TrEMBL record:
Keywords: Methyltransferase, Transferase. Gene3D superfamilies: Vaccinia Virus protein VP39 (3.40.50.150). InterPro entries: Methyltransf_12, METTL2/6/8-like, SAM-dependent_MTases_sf. S-adenosyl-L-methionine-dependent methyltransferase. This is tRNA N(3)-methylcytidine methyltransferase. GO terms for biological process: methylation. It is an enzyme of class 2 (transferase). Residues 125-227 form the Methyltransferase type domain. It comes from Anopheles coluzzii (African malaria mosquito). GO terms for molecular function: RNA methyltransferase activity; S-adenosylmethionine-dependent methyltransferase activity. The keyword RNA-binding does not apply.
Amino acid sequence: MDEPVDSKTVDPSSVDRFPKQKAFNLGDVVTDAAKILTEEERTKLEEQNKRLVTPFQALKLEQEARKHWDLFYKRNENRFFKDRHWTTREFSELLAGEDPTAAASSSPLAKPDNVERISVEKKLLEIGCGVGNLIFPLIEDGHRDYFIYACDLSPRAVELVRKHNLYDERYMKAFACDITTEEVFQTLPEASLDIVTLIFVLSAIHPEKFQSTVANIYRLLKPGGVVLFRDYGLYDMAQLRFKPGHKIAENFYMRQDGTRSYYFAEEEVSKLFCQTGFTVMVNSYIHRRTVNPKENIDVPRIFVQGKFLKPEQT
């Protein structure tokens, strides 16, 4: 269950800069204000600076990023991340163009193998698809209005997607690529996509490559296309839990398994997309407290969530 977040942990002096997301769960605090740290939390962040990841180690982590994600999926396969059935609730764009009269029969499991895919004009790309925790729930729930492209840095993750019983190249294509480079354009032409999802992906990329990543997305989208974004927010509980020896740079950390995570300020995300040419539709922090008394879990989370539009050509 979700319980209210104490408003005292959010800076009330901040002025709204962009339209905000609506609250999707009871107790969500949706704001453009960063969390106000307690003295204990400030001490934790200061402790992290006592022993940083060495430049040599940081460079090695960058060079071996693909290897670390491959090892991650070798260990965990499809057992680590939960399916994201929430995406259509919080990003209604994923429902665009749905034919409500076809909902009852749109499950791929109910379609004969010899039925060809109906021509689909709109195209969606999930960046950082992992093992398909976003795309397969879309298919299961009958949302097949888009041809779905799915890419990941890890070839092993892509292999797992292709082995899924719902994978069907009549309406989807999974491929491995490094989205920070020109590699994606070997599969997709410029101005070919209507929607790009970037959900808990940018945080795994080195901050020096944020701009090139967003620039590639801009090139891939048609005018009027939209990026759906969610990632870890500044001072999320996961950031505060890192011990000395894990911090690579400001707000950028190494996990035990060699993968990395960055924690975003709301204004930083808006600036990143605006500098590339996007218009901010909505962007905000979501402070969410998830409580499960049976498992003795009380976890305050902070995300940055937004939608960014590539303007129509004039």
